[in-house]
Amino acid sequence: MNSKNKKHLDPVQAQARREQVLTAAADCFHRKGYHGAGMAEIARTAGMSAGHIYNYFDSKEAIIESIIEKDMEEMFSIFQEFEDQPGDILTVLLDGLHHGVQRHMDTGACVIDLDMMAEASRNKKVALLLREADTQARNRMRDLLVSESSLIKSHSEQELESRINVIFSVMAGLLLRKMLFPELTEETVLIALRPAMKTLLMPFDKN
Amino acid sequence: MNSKNKKHLDPVQAQARREQVLTAAADCFHRKGYHGAGMAEIARTAGMSAGHIYNYFDSKEAIIESIIEKDMEEMFSIFQEFEDQPGDILTVLLDGLHHGVQRHMDTGACVIDLDMMAEASRNKKVALLLREADTQARNRMRDLLVSESSLIKSHSEQELESRINVIFSVMAGLLLRKMLFPELTEETVLIALRPAMKTLLMPFDKN
Amino acid sequence: MNSKNKKHLDPVQAQARREQVLTAAADCFHRKGYHGAGMAEIARTAGMSAGHIYNYFDSKEAIIESIIEKDMEEMFSIFQEFEDQPGDILTVLLDGLHHGVQRHMDTGACVIDLDMMAEASRNKKVALLLREADTQARNRMRDLLVSESSLIKSHSEQELESRINVIFSVMAGLLLRKMLFPELTEETVLIALRPAMKTLLMPFDKN
Amino acid sequence: MNSKNKKHLDPVQAQARREQVLTAAADCFHRKGYHGAGMAEIARTAGMSAGHIYNYFDSKEAIIESIIEKDMEEMFSIFQEFEDQPGDILTVLLDGLHHGVQRHMDTGACVIDLDMMAEASRNKKVALLLREADTQARNRMRDLLVSESSLIKSHSEQELESRINVIFSVMAGLLLRKMLFPELTEETVLIALRPAMKTLLMPFDKN
DNA sequence: TATGAATGAGCGTTCATTCAT
DNA sequence: TATGAATGAACGCTCATTCAT
Q1: What pTM value is reported for the model?
Q2: Nearest to B4, CA basis, from B48, B59, B45, B82
Q3: Which residues in chain C touch residue D158, judged by CB atoms under 8 angstroms apart?
C-alpha cells in the first residue's frame, strides 16, 4: 500500500505532517542536495523521528517525487493566471515576466532545482516526473501562444517548439546564474530579458 | 599538509599521475555523476590503487575541484576564437552561435555538468572557482560587446550586465533542457534562439 | 508488572481479548514465521490496535510463550487416545502410527513448528516449556510401553529411554523433511516407518 | 562480480579470512539465529570490521549459503568413507552409525540446523540449496543401498525412497532432541537406534 | 478500554579514507 | 612509490514498543 494513501485517523493532521516533511526535505535538499541530506536530518528538521516519516512516505524517493508534484501544481496555477488575464498574450506574458523571473530566481522556493535535475540523470522515476511536468508546462505555453490573442499563432509547429524551448531555457538558466551569483537582481535581469522575450513572442523578422 | 603541495621524489611523474587521476575521474563523473562514481572505480580507471590516489589528492572533493580548475583554463579559448574573427561582433557571434549551442547541448563534452554545478551550490571552493571562471568569461564577453565593431558599445553598464547575464542564462539553460530532453536538437533550438540573440546584441527598441 | 497478571476491569473480556490475540498470532506465525509476522499484522488479524495488545502481553516473545503453553495442554489428548484403546500396545501404536505421521507431516496444523523450536533454542522460557511438555509426553509414552499389554515392559530404564527418544526423533524428523520436501507423502513414509517402529516396540534381537 | 571470486592479492590469507567469517557466522547463527545475529556481531566475532566482511561475501545471505555449501561437502566426505569401506553395507553403515549420530548430536558443528530450515521456509535460495544438498545425500545413500553388497538392493523404488526418508528423519530428529535435551547422550540413543537402523537396512518381514 | 501516532534502536550495506607493508 | 586490506561512520529503512488522548 502506498503510504500516501494510508488511512490516518485525522486526515488534517496527517496532511500537516506530510507538509512538515516536504518542507523540511526541500530545505535539506536545498542545503545539502538529495544525496547529501539524510533521513535523520530531514526528520530532525521536520521535528519528528526518522521512522515516523515512513508513516507518510514510502521512501526518500517518494518524498522528492511529492516535492516535484507539488511544484508542478504550483506551476499550473501560474499558467492559469496568465490564461485568466484579459488582453493580448504578448502583453500578459511580458507583464507577468517579472513573476516568472522572481520564481526562478528565488533559490529557496524553486525546489525543482539542480539536484533534482542531477538526480533525474540517474533516477528514471524522477526523470519521468520532471519530463512530464515540463511537457505539461510546454503544452500550457503552447496553448497560450496559439490562442486567439497571440501574435504568432499562425507559425509552424517546429518554430513554436523552438520558441518555447528557448523561453524555458532562459528561465531555467536564470536559476543557475542566481545560484552562482546570488547578488544578481531580478531588475538587472529584466532589462535585457524583456526585449529578448518580446522577440520570442512576436513574428521573427525576415532578415 | 595539502596533498597537492606534498613533496614527491619525482615531480614530473607526480604530475603525470595527477593527470591520470583527473582524466579517469572526469570520465567516471561523466558516466556516473559525482556521487555515483566511487573512488574504487576512479582508481581502476586511472590504473592505480584507490589508496595511492590519496598521495596526490586530499579527498574526492579535491579531485572535482581540480577538474573544474583545469576546465576553467580551457574555457577562455572559446572567446579567443570570437576575438580573432574579422567583421562586426553581431555577425561573428550569430555565426558562431551554433558552436556555443553545440557545446552546451553536447551532454558528453560539458564536464562542468549538473553534478558539479550542484556541488558548487554547497562547496565553497567549487563555487569560488565557478564564479571566477564565469566572471572572466563575462569580462571577455563584455570586451566583445563594447569593442569597436559592436553595435551596442555605448550603452549603460547595467544594461550590458543584463544582456550578458541573459545570454549566459539561455546557454546554460540549454544544458538543462538537453539533459531532460535528449531528443531536443540544435537545429530546433536555433530557430528561435538566433532572433532572440540578435535582439540581445542590438540596441533595444524604445517602446 | 507482568501484563498477564495486570488487573483488568472485566476479567472475562480480558481473557477473550487474550484469546483473540493468541489465535491471530498463531495464524500469523504460521503464515510468516515468528520473525516474519509483525505486531501490526497480528493486531490487524486480531481486530485491535497494536498498542492494545500490550495491555495483555508484555512483548511479542510473551505471545509465543503463551501459544506454546496453550499447545502443550492439547498435546496430552493424543496419548489419551492410545491409552483408551483395547488390545496390546504394539498393535495399538502401530495402528495409530499413521495418525502421528499425519500430525507431524501436516505443516499447517503443527503450530509448534520450526520457528518456535528455533526460538526455543535461545529463549529460556520457551525451552523450559518445550522440555516440560516433552518430558510429560515421554512419561505418557513410557507408561504405555511398560503397561500390562506391552511386549517390552521388563527392559532396562536406559533402553526404554533410548526407545522413546528414537521414536520421538523420527517423528520430529518427519516434520523437518516434510518442510523441505512438501511432496513427501504419508504413505511413502509409512512403508519403512512401520517396520522400524515395530522394531522399536519389540524386544531387540540378541545379535 | 561475486565477492567469492573477487581477486585477492594473497589467496591464502583471503581464504583464511573467509573461514574466519564463516566460523564466526556459524557461531553467531547458532547462538542467536540467522535473523538474531547481526553483521556487527558476526564481524566482532570474526575479529574484523563489518564493512570488511563484504570484501569476502556479497551479503549476509551469501554467508549462510557458503555455510550450507561447506556442510554439504563435509557430508559428502562422510558418504565417501562409507563407500570406501570393505564389507557389506549393513555392517559398514551400522559400524559407522555412531559417527552419524555424533555428527547430528554435535549441536555446535551441525550448523545446517533449525534456523536454516526455518530460513528455508522463507528464503527460496536457501531452500533450494538445502534441497539440493539433501537430494544429493539421498542419492549417495541410495547408491549405497543398491550396491552389490547390500541386502536390500532388489526392492522397489518406493520402498527404497521410504527407507531413506525414515533414516534421514531419525537423524535429523536427533538434532532437535539434542537441542531440547543437551543431556541426551550418543550412547543412550544408540541402544535403540541400532536395531531400528538394522531393520531399515534389511528386507522387511512379511507380516 | 482502546487507539494509532510516535519513537528509537537496530538492521544490512556502502564507500571515502587510512595504514601496514 | 604503490598496494589493497581494513576501517567506521553514515546511509535508508523496519518494527517492537510506548504514550498522549
Answers
A1: 0.90
A2: B59
A3: 188, 191
Residue nearest the C1' of E11 (CA based): D38
Chains that touch A (3 or more CB pairs under 8 A): B
Does position C65 have pLDDT exceeding 60, yes or no?
A: yes
Which spans in chain B are helix H? 11-36, 39-46, 50-53, 60-84, 89-105, 114-120, 124-145, 157-180, 186-200
User: Strand E positions with any atom < 7 Å from protein CB?
Assistant: 1-20
> CA B51 → C1' E19, Å?
9
CA distance B98 to B94: 8
Q: What is the pLDDT of residue A188?
A: 96
C45 CA to E11 C1' in angstroms comes to 26
Closest alpha carbon within chain B to A183: B131
Please choose, from the candidates D143, D195, D140, the residue with its C-alpha nearest in 3D space to the C-alpha of residue D170: D195
Asked if residue D45 lies in contact with residue D63, where contact means CB atoms within 8 angstroms, the answer is: no
Q: In chain B, pLDDT over 90 holds for what percent of residues?
A: 48
Which of B52 and B76 is assigned the larger pLDDT? B52
Q: CA A160 → CA A90, A101, A169, B104, B188, distances in Å?
A: 14, 21, 14, 21, 10
Confidence tier at A30 by pLDDT (50, 70, 90) = confident
Average pLDDT over chain D, rounded to whole? 89
Mark residues 41-60 of chain C whose C-beta is closer than 7 A to nucleic acid strand E: 48-52, 55
For residue C190, what pLDDT band results from cuts at 50, 70 and 90? very high
Out of B114, B131, B198, whose CB is closest to A180? B131
DSSP state of B147: S
Q: Which residues contact A156 (CB under 8 A, 6 or more apart)?
A: none
| Whole-angstrom distance, CA of residue C117 vs CA of residue C135 | 15
pLDDT at A111: 57
Closest nt by CA–C1' to B38: E15
The model's pLDDT over D51-66, given as tens digits with 9 standing for 90+, comes to: 999 999 999 999 999 9
Q: Do D177 and C198 touch (CB under 8 A)?
A: no
Q: Is the CB of D51 under 7 A from strand E?
A: yes
Annotate D32-97 with DSSP letters as a single string: H-TTTS-HHHHHHHHTS-HHHHTTT-SSHHHHHHHHHHHHHHHHHHHHHHHHHS-S-HHHHHHHHH
Q: Is the CB of C66 under 7 A from strand F?
A: no
- Closest to B179 in 3D by CA, of A177, A178, A134, A79: A134
| Helix residue ranges, H only, chain C | 11-36, 39-46, 50-53, 60-84, 89-105, 114-120, 124-145, 157-180, 186-201
pLDDT per residue over A46-89, tens digit each?
999 999 999 999 999 999 999 988 888 888 888 888 888 888 88
Phi-psi region of D47 (alpha: psi -120 to 50; beta: other; left: phi over 0): left
What does each C-alpha distance from C173 to B115, B120, D113, D177, D191 come to in angstroms? 59, 65, 12, 10, 19
Q: Is there a contact between A119 and A34 (Cβ–Cβ < 8 Å)? A: yes
Of C161, C180, C181, the CB nearest to D188: C161
Determine, for residues A162 and B190 on separate chains, whether the beta-carbon distance falls below 8 Å: yes
* Lookup: nucleotide whose C1' is closest to D7 CA: F4
Q: Which three cell numbers stand for residue C131?
A: 522440555
- pLDDT, tens digit (0-9, with 9 covering 90-100), for B77-128: 777 777 778 888 889 999 999 988 998 888 665 555 677 777 767 788 888 8
* pLDDT higher at B166 or D108: B166
